[in-house]
Amino acid sequence: MTSGPASFNSSSNSTSDSAPSADSESRLYGGGVNGAGPLAGELSPMLLPVVPAALDRRSEDRADPAFLASIVHEQGTMALLLAQHRAAMEGERLVLLPAAELPQEWLDGLVVYLGRVPEVHHKS
Question: What is the pTM of this model?
């Protein structure tokens, strides 16, 4: 039974840096550091929305709750979420998620987490 990633994990501790593994993808959707990824309801400080302008800079202004909440509010059709980073070797992973595909309660939780009243609901 040497099919799959289990065989390359058993002989050495180093993982392949050239391609993202299925494990790293599963962290976003439910296998996060604390056992639940952000889409499973976990909110962590590593999960922050950013604007494209903030992608090139690693400044602390993207951690400002009012700034981030305004982005969620004004650009509700597309949320750029900072996924939980795997380890220092992988660093920050940016994942593009359509806001329409996120559960409403998760979006409400994100808004509350960012410190803005839930008046952010889309007026459609």
Answer: 0.19
